[in-house]
Amino acid sequence: MTQEQLNESVEYLKKRGFEIPEIGIVLGTGLGQLIDNIENPIEAHYNHIPHFPLATVEFHTGKLIYGTIEGKKAVVMQGRFHLYEGYDFVDITYPIRVMHQLGVQKLFVSNAAGAVNLNYKKGDIMLIEDHINLQGGSPLAFKNVSQFGNRFVDMSEPYDVSMRSKMEKIAEKEGISLQKGVYASVVGPQLETKAEYRMIKTLGADAVGMSTVPEVIVANHLRLPIVAVSVLTDECDPDNLEPVNIQEILDIAAQTEPKMIKLFTELIKEI
Predict the structure, then answer these.
(1) Which domain holds residue 124?
(2) How many Å separate Cα 49 from the centre of its chain?
(3) Which of these, 108, 136, 192, 256, could form a disulfide with 25 (CB 3.0-4.6 Å)?
């Protein structure tokens, strides 16, 4: 990755009409309905944006959408990139750097995840307070990283405290049950074994998924405040583990998504 590549990506999007967005949003698996809230949308498909990776997962559509949400200019990433698609960490996080260079000042991230904390149930939303990186690498581990920011990034509080607090108050006001916890990120794409779920729980995680952590690390590298939520789509009880049903996961994500959208849109109003 070079600064020239970033400049070319940003220049293309500006010519498409992506003018100084304030908010960046990354939508997770099965969580695409938020785009219905965008006024005057402008789309840019990933395969048209210079130097962008291509989305390869069948239920990730692969485009950036620019428009207005609750009176604020926003860029929404519909379809993200994952290690399990064969990308490296720099590819996965390239769109975050592009959004930041466009002018984004706050980042909202969602994902679908499995509940490792058995007090949490499928259909719950979990506000991520911290994370555990089990992906075996870092999006900052490349030679010229210091050209883009400090190599050694503080991660003592990776998720913005102020936005978390505001989201909790919004959830209470709207009557939305909002869990809080630690998200563990693994490589995938295979789901975890019983022993792996036990390990992840022992490590202190409340939910597990295959994304988000690389984006959060880069957001911190860019000093970009971030808030993230997991839509819990399955319960990962190693003593009563049933074969995974991907369609059920997508269905639960879709059913829960309106609550997540309410949390996001109300928070956008407030910041």
Answers:
(1) 3-270
(2) 20
(3) 108
User: How far is residue 113's CA from residue 86's CA, in Å, rounded to a whole number?
Assistant: 20
User: SS3 helix, strand, coil % of the chain, rounded to 5?
Assistant: 40, 25, 40
Number of independent structural domains in the chain: 1
Reported in sequence order, the residue ranges of 31-173 that DSSP labels E, i.e. its strands, are 39-45, 63-69, 72-78, 106-115, 125-133
In the chain, where do the E strands start and end?
23-27, 39-45, 63-69, 72-78, 106-115, 125-133, 178-185, 207-209, 226-235
**Looking at residue 110, which CATH number applies to its domain?**
3.40.50.1580
Longest dimension (CA), the chain: 54
Stretch 25-29: mean pLDDT, rounded? 90
Q: Return d(Cα 44, Cα 18) in angstroms, integer.
A: 9
SS3 at position 217: helix
Residue pLDDT, tens place only, 224-260: 999 999 999 999 999 999 888 888 888 898 899 999 9
